[in-house]
Structure of Magnesium chelatase family protein:
Amino acid sequence: MGMGRSLAIALVGLNGHVIEVEADIGQTLPNFILLGLPDASLSEARERIRSAAQNSGIPLSRRKITVNLVPASLPKKGSGFDLAIVMAALDAAGDVRGTGRTVFIAELGLDGRLRPVRGILPAVIAGLAAGHAEFVVAKANLAEAQLVKGAKVRGYECLAEVAVDFGADPHDLPAVDREWVSGPEPGGTAQRQPHAQESVDLAEVAGQPIARLALEIAAAGGHHLMMVGPPGSGKTMLAERLPGLLPDLNDAESMEVTAIHSLEHSASNLVALIHRPPYERPHHSASTAAIIGGGSGIPRPGAASRAHRGVLFLDEAPEFDKRVLDALRQPLESGELVLHRSAGTAAYPARFQLVLAANPCPCGKATGKGVHCECTPMARRRYFGRLSGPLLDRVDIQLQVNKVQLSQLADTEPRESSAQVAERVKLARAVAGERLKPWGLVHNADLTGRILRGPLRLGGHDTALLDKAMGVGVLSARGYDRVLRLAWTVADLQGLERPGSDEVGLALTLRQRGEGL
């Protein structure tokens, strides 16, 4: 009887902390004490562990077992500590050995089966970054854990299998299948999700040449987009096709996006890296916690984080709660959401493209002369009043989308497909990436005012129209910079070395909901 040790991972947001699980068996009456700030689900591990060990043929000691989770000051939550705790207790009793260098991540069933848990991918990434390369997980989690290069992962079906491979006498245990599947060796290649056909295509959108151009510019430069128009004008169709214009994520981005989704999805569903930009479309009744993230205890990611490296589409944007809309201002600027709760602070990446769609008024009929609109002026002001000035100031493209005409619907001329436009977007992004490399930036939407008025400064003739708009109060300083960012994207799509007055004029028109070019 003595001390036993194993390792586990505590996730706070996407950040994982290695937890040393210490187990001590005393010489007093039977008891099981769990220390180290466990939450309710973790405190229940004591009964799960006893039953799982008993039903696996390796019952825990009948003396006092004290388990300490170090560091004790860090809150721990979830059932993923079960396997690490039982292995430390068995190590203390001398039933197994060699557990001190292995990270164990799995929930235990009462019959001893290992059950999958969420967040395996960020947990393995954190353990490997801390210098621990050996992991034991439930077999249902194995495919996801294998996505991390350099991690030696083993997946098991039940506790008895794990105990045998860590030195338990197989003659004392029920017959078990000791065949386990190992993860990739260091330097191995992670699987990638096969490229799926986009379910929607830009060729299906009739008419709307200006909106199609705006969508292409938004995709090429990573710009935020707002579309205002009557019901049925195609706003939702256009927004749904934006992800199809974006290029695949690189390996680092794929790992980041997959790690976020690992916290939300059933672990057995993630068997490959997510390499297509995600698309999130929350309902307008969604709460702040659902969009931004939150919940009891350590906050969980919301739709904004799940849309990281992809598109967050808010249809009927003025119908969203004003607090929800204003909460998006921070991630639009910083690309990150930091959520503070009493149980801890969690940081989630949230660098997404925001797409807003709105009707011109609550009834949607205030188009043209608006003779059929039944809304009062007060109702219209209240409707758009939920979209605050500071939020709209951060949206680069603000576009008026008009009704589709009958002649456009009947037009049989072939339209450009998403694949054709995506190829131009890819080329434009490559040009911008090469230009922005000295500053460590990727998209034109990331350009700062210091760079735009410094190394990338345009001549006075090119910005004359823009200077006039700011002089009469049409543009703020932030809006001025955002028009310049748009102008650089327009130039990249047209194959120009730098934007001129025409490109700046087009960018300004797209910024002001212009109906014509």
Observations:
- The chain has two domains: 3-182, 202-414.
- DSSP finds 21 helices and 19 strands in the chain.
- The mean pLDDT is 88.
- The first strand starts at residue 3 and ends at 12.
